[in-house]
User: Fold this.
Amino acid sequence: MRVTAPEQTDVELLAAMAAGDRDALAVLYHRHGRWLLTRLHHRCTDPDMVDTALQDTFVSAWRSAGNYRPPAGDTSGEAGAWLWAIAARRLVDQLRRRPAPTPSATLPEPEPLPPPGTPVYDLLAGLPADLHPVVRAVYVDGLTTAEAAILLGIPHGTVKSRLSRAKPLLKEVLR
Assistant:
C-alpha cells in the first residue's frame, strides 16, 4: 500500500521529488512554504525579493532533492532546516543583486526571540540584543560571515567583531 502524500515524511517527499513527482513538491511547499515565507519576511522587507527567494528555494529543492541526506541521528524525517538553509542563501543572492541602499533606508525590525524553553531562545537570551542577529545568521542559519553581512546589511568586519564578542558569552551559555 502506498502512503498518501500528506502522510509522507519530508525525506519520503524529497525521494519522490527526485523521481519527478510534482505532487510531492506541492505537498512539501504547502508544509513548509508559509513558515519559510514568514522567516524570510523577518529578514527582508522587500516582498518581491522574499517571493523570489522562496520560489528559488523550491526550485533548488526540486533540482537537488536526490542529494538530500538527513543529518546523522535525525529520525524525524523533517527537512525544514535544509529548506531554511537554501532559503537564507537564496535571499542573500537576491540582496547581493540589489542596488546599494539609500541613507534613508530603514532596517527591518529585529526578529523576535523564539518561545522560552526552546534551544535557540536559551542560546540567545543570555546575549546582548545587538549580538542576536549575527549569532542567529551564522550559528543558527549556518551562513558564512560574508553572507550574514549581506543579509543583515552591515559591514563584514562588524559581523566578525560581534561574533568575537559573542563567542565567550556563548561558551558560558552552552556550559
Observations:
- Residues 22-43 form the longest helix (22 residues).
- Helices lie at 10-18, 22-43, 47-64, 80-97, 119-125, 132-140, 145-152, 156-173.
- Residues 110-175 form a domain with the Arc Repressor Mutant, subunit A fold (CATH 1.10.10.10).
- The chain is about 60% helix and 0% strand.
